[in-house]
## 1
Amino acid sequence: MKENRIKTKLKEDKKLLSIYFTAGYPSLNDTAEIIQHLEQNGVDMIEIGLPFSDPLADGPTIQESSTAALHNGMNTELLFDQLKKIRKTVSIPLIMMGYFNPVFQYGVEAFCKKCQEIGIDGIILPDLPLDVYQEEYETIFKKYGLINVFLITPQTSEERIREIDEASDGFIYMVSSASTTGAKTGFGEKTETYFEKINGMNLKNPQIVGFGISNSDTFNQATKKTKGAIIGSAFIKHLTQNGVEKIDEFVRGIR
Amino acid sequence: MSYHANDKGYYGEFGGAFIPEMLYPNTEELRQNYIRIMEEPSFKEEFHQLLKDYVGRPTPLYFAERLSKKYQTKIYLKREDLCHTGAHKVNNTIGQILMAKKLGKNRIIAETGAGQHGVATATVCALMGIECVVYMGEIDIARQAPNVARMKMLGAEVRPALSGSRTLKDATNEAIRDWINNPVNTHYIIGSVVGPHPYPDMVARFQSVISEEIKAQLLEKEGVENPNYVIACVGGGSNAAGAYYHYLDTPEVGIIAVEAAGKGIDSGESAATSALGKVGIIHGSKTLLMQTNDGQITEPYSISAGLDYPGVGPMHAHLFKSGRGEFISITDDEAMTAGLEVSQLEGIIPAIETSHAFAIFEYKKFKKDDIVVINLSGRGDKDLQNYIDYFKL
């Protein structure tokens, strides 16, 4: 069996840039073009947001993009169709990110099976807790070769970070501060201390930082002691203002 | 088999804590401490003292003679409408503000729909001198001006929820987002038996004073602790959880839950979760909720803002699924008519939420000797404008 694309990517000797976007935004059929542009401009991984009506962990930017995407008519089946086509032309690691309820309604096993068929590499479901995942869904995710990515935050205890590290098989999504997405930009001294602490724990999984990264300064800061960083809200704002054609400018501005 | 939550917060298949990792430390701190704190003698003493002297408990269990005569059965009303602030909501906010103090929190957030829970929260924050922020949908703020004014007068800040449908569901989302952004000093006082574990169980325990009193009062009046039926309206379901609590595992007591059918179950404008909902995740809990086939949460509708919620607490989902509870849906029109009838037969104007429970007699016949307890969860002052508009008073 071929190695999971996320794992291959993590072995590269470079800091990884991962970009999040909400599928179905700005327009319903932008998914393929966005993915293509991101790959062409040297982005390392893509998180595709499956829009949800009630995104609890997201700030206004991603909320609004989700509402707009649903209004545009995005749904799970349609997104799978779009991804199936684009997967034939791109080799970048693709991660599905969303909330648990739409996945639960689709059927967790059916969802994972479909992801494998299409060539999705990983899944991030922030509101699927570790214990439920392990008890009910881990075997399904593994059966279909999908990497499940867990989050840690500055409030996560050392004991729990170890538990999450043990349960992870890819990377850990390191939330930079206690916040919803897009709430803050830049990092203070506290965040630096947190980065140091995690770095000192010698975890088996590399960490990729998310929340609060919007430009090359914050990207460099975030990746000084970690494997990479994820940009979401800032990219969506760029799409809102400039559309899909100028994705190259955004990516060039980061590194 | 027990109908109470197990130690992981599950009622059968429903409940649990489906929360992003950002909220794990907050809910975990609460989960590890809530039962211990609630069982501390000093906590119990302060809680019961405040319920007595501040809230005005025990609330009466009143034999509704004219209503009983009309429906040929023995109807008792548990008068939660006589609580300070006008509804059962304050039982929970008193409990949770004391809990927040024990946990060393100095800031309170809450969500509110019609404003009743917001007012009950603002009230206890004023009582304790603690900062209070209440999230309320922008549309509800416009609809419920008197309660917004009450909260402000009590010193709370009312923040409009501008996302989504700008009603209760979105106010809850905003409160949860606030909690994510303020994980250390803030306690979130959820107003119903919804949300991640341990909220449904904790809120049910604080509201359980209702059925604890019913038992003692029935014993005094009828010589028995158990009625034949306990009836309550269910939105999220906190007044119902309190009224059922001490009867959950007593099968000879029938449990009846009344939901809001809005303009009719098939009208597309309804909040009857048991009839229209499917299993899913809302606000951190696995329960029954109204949603699209794609798992997007849909907008409920009811004339009563307190029943206008797309989900139902996990306890109630389990009562429905297991058959322990009987669920009946009542339309806006049926509820309004029943509210008017209770006003004129008993001299009590009920909240529109509660009026739904009174409409049950059109659907269910009781025996002459049956003892039927209806939880009169709130008074109708807040709904006067709705009643005026509806009946052209």
Note: Strands of chain A lie at 16-22, 45-49, 94-97, 122-124, 147-148, 151-152, 172-175, 207-210, 228-231.
## 2
Amino acid sequence: MAEILALRDAVKQFVNDGDTVALEGFTHLIPTAAGHEIIRQGKKDLTLVRMTPDLIYDQLIGAGCARKLIFSWGGNPGVGSLHRLRDAVEKHWPQSLEIEEHSHADLANAYVAGASGLPFAVLRAYAGSDLPKVNPLIKTVTCPFTGEVLAAVPSVRPDVTVIHAQKADRKGNVLLWGILGVQKEAALAAKRCIVTVEEIVDDLNAPMNSCVLPTWALTAVCHVPGGAHPSYAHGYNERDNRFYQAWDPIARDRGTFTAWIDEYIHGTVDFSEFQAKLAAAQEAK
Amino acid sequence: MAYSTNEMMTVAAARRLKNGSVCFVGIGLPSKAANLARLTSSPDVVLIYESGPIGAKPNVLPLSIGDGELAETADTVVPTGEIFRYWLQGGRIDVGFLGAAQVDRFGNINTTVVGDYHQPKVRLPGAGGAPEIAGSAKSVLIILKQSARSFVDKLDFITSVGHGEGGDSRKRLGLPGAGPVGIITDLCIMEPEEGSHEFVVTALHPGVTREQVVAATGWAIRFADHVSITDEPTETELTALRDLEARTAAAHGQAPGAA
């Protein structure tokens, strides 16, 4: 059974230094509030897994929480580069970042394999690509029935996965909809799973065949309305495209980035205070 | 109607999408061209985005690959793993529509690094869905602006394979799809030459000279025996494109054409 906890307590109890952590959400339902809380608590040496690192990992990497990044597309969607990721890879700031690079099909399959309790995933991929030359974990396997040579990649099995979702009930059953990405697979592939939700209700009223994660498959559920910002939760809030654009100049420079983290993350006690501070700053403009 | 070279590129790319074809769409220029096709010549084109929407009919262009607009206008939304497993790898995609940072003469694509992988000069976003789209879609179209920096003699990194080293490379690699069948730029259209599979210019956009194309290509680009001139964008095409860009700009708070 999932415990209904404050996000601060969930991160404190279930995210440890050195863990392999997947904060997933394919553009939609990105658990930004949890990323902030990990920075606030100064977690270190994390191996971060995420198909699209996005702003959430740009922040964690720049804040010095990460030792390694496993990913498949590292940009600021519709805007440009992730400057903190690039600075870590190109100039080793604030520390060296080991990268393990895959394709989307590979990581999506690797999450499916992880959720399925399998050690590796098999897919038709990478023939002719240079990625296997720089990632020794991308190997091949020969089909025992047809002889076809296919790609084999290790499954993703995080110590802890964090996702955002729309609704939970009071027992901690979670309902999500819209663009699901790899949310379900990432949740079920992990040893522990924290879900932040827009609201907690008496009854999910989930239509048959909905994507519901049962409480007994989760570790903690935290009520964090708007917790995906600047990503979004379908039916609750819209993607804040302007914030994605505004992030570019903030992250471009080490000084402005560090000042932003100090002001907005270390200078706030939780996500609702962060939201209030951000709203006040935007209003002042 | 007067038009820009970027508009010519988008219109020329849109014309390549046959009505009723199933298209796996990359974000940015491919998404713009694919939606223009849907709004003009190919109303029944099926647009699939890697985030999960199948049959998306967005009223405004998505800024990200996972905008809510894609989900709301889709026939169905499936998990990302399913997109790659059942719909792409399962052999259900007619056209993979890709952008690129760099291409070479065989339509191989680099979106990973400029310079050495471990000591990069420029770190690019990486693979995303492209390697498997390039491998498994029945055919591939590539759209990008042409310059000597983007059309290079030798890629520092092959992220997604086109025709490999040319000739029967794809066959030897065991790739199921036919690979890239067209590169559409702001200057011209290139198609693979039979046999060698090297991309040669088959059409110039109106007003573009061969010298311009040569200057904007990092390898010794060749021209097909018969080079046609692309038809100018029609009023219908331009109006549909400009309306789409205006709606998009209004929705995202951007300058028209920036999406």
Note: Residues 271-284 of chain A form the longest helix (14 residues).
